[in-house]
Amino acid sequence: MITVSILGSGNVATHLYRAFAESTEVQLVQIYGRNPTNLLAFKDKVSTCSRLEDLKKVDIFILAVKDDAVEEIIQKLKHRDAIIAHTSGSIPLSQSAKKNGVFYPLQTFSKDTPVDFKHIPLCLEASDKEIYTLLEKLALSISPKVFSISSEQRKSLHLSAVFVCNFVNHLYHIGESLCEKNEVPFEILHALILETARKASLHSPKAVQTGPAVRNDQKSIATHLERLTDEKYKEIYTLLTQSIQATYGTKL
């Protein structure tokens, strides 16, 4: 049985708590959070604390906190012989911990949206083989998708994730706002969204690109630009069209 405490009470911490709570190989000892109010959701299910000095010794501390708080918390932890693993996609292995690692779940998390960790890749890194082995055991207790990823690779993954998740979601927002403006149910686009994601997971996205930009359909492009009254949206449309046409050798 691996003993674990989670430091953090946000989206990532909440979902890791739920996953570890269901694992028969993990004993979840404590949840730490600076704001006692945020700990109320956990209070009846696991021991909580809002002071680092109240943390008990465990095998692994999982730091699911903001990037700029990671080093500060590591330096203040009194249990320096435990493995300390952060969940950040963009910061490297800590230099402050004696036994340091990374336990990075590559997924978008919202507290009220359930996720199945069996389908979530866990990207691991550790300062030595022994630490990696224990982190791997912990990861495999909640997901079969476990990858050894270096700090440099993780930075590239995080950047890629911003493009395929955060930026794409913002484009969904723009599409939804255009639908609302014209009194069209956004629901009509749901099937298209799902099919686009499905194709991108089955093939190279470059191989399945469709639309007026890749076809060099100048008439449709001009019509779309004319209909876009928001200059920010028009600029985004133009930049993406130019990028697609540069990729496929056509010209705006």
How would you portray this structure in words?
With about 250 residues, the protein is α/β, with parallel strands linked by helices. It has 2 domains: about 1-150, Rossmann fold; about 155-250, Orthogonal Bundle (N-(1-d-carboxylethyl)-l-norvaline Dehydrogenase, domain 2), CATH 1.10.1040.20. It contains 8 helices and 8 strands, in the order E-H-E-E-E-H-E-E-E-H-E-H-H-H-H-H. It has an 8-stranded mixed β-sheet, sandwiched between helices. Strand 7 (about 120-125), helix 3 and strand 8 form a beta-alpha-beta unit. The radius of gyration is 22 Å and the shape is elongated. The mean pLDDT is about 90.
How would you summarize the topology of this molecule?
Blueprint: E1 2-7, H1 11-22, E2 26-32, E3 47-49, E4 60-63, H2 70-76, E5 83-86, E6 99-105, E7 122-126, H3 129-140, E8 146-148, H4 151-181, H5 190-202, H6 212-215, H7 218-227, H8 231-248
Parallel strand pairs: 1-2, 1-4, 2-3, 4-5, 5-6, 7-8
Antiparallel strand pairs: 6-7
Helix content: 40-55%
How many distinct domains?
2
Overall radius of gyration: 22 Å
The count of β-strands is 8
Uncertain residue segments: none
CATH class category name of the largest domain = Alpha Beta
Shape by Cα distribution = elongated
- Oligomer class: single chain
CATH-level-4 superfamily name of the largest domain: NAD(P)-binding Rossmann-like Domain
Pfam family, one: DUF2520
Protein name: DUF2520 domain-containing protein
Organism: Mesonia ostreae
Domain Pyrroline-5-carboxylate reductase catalytic N-terminal: 4-80
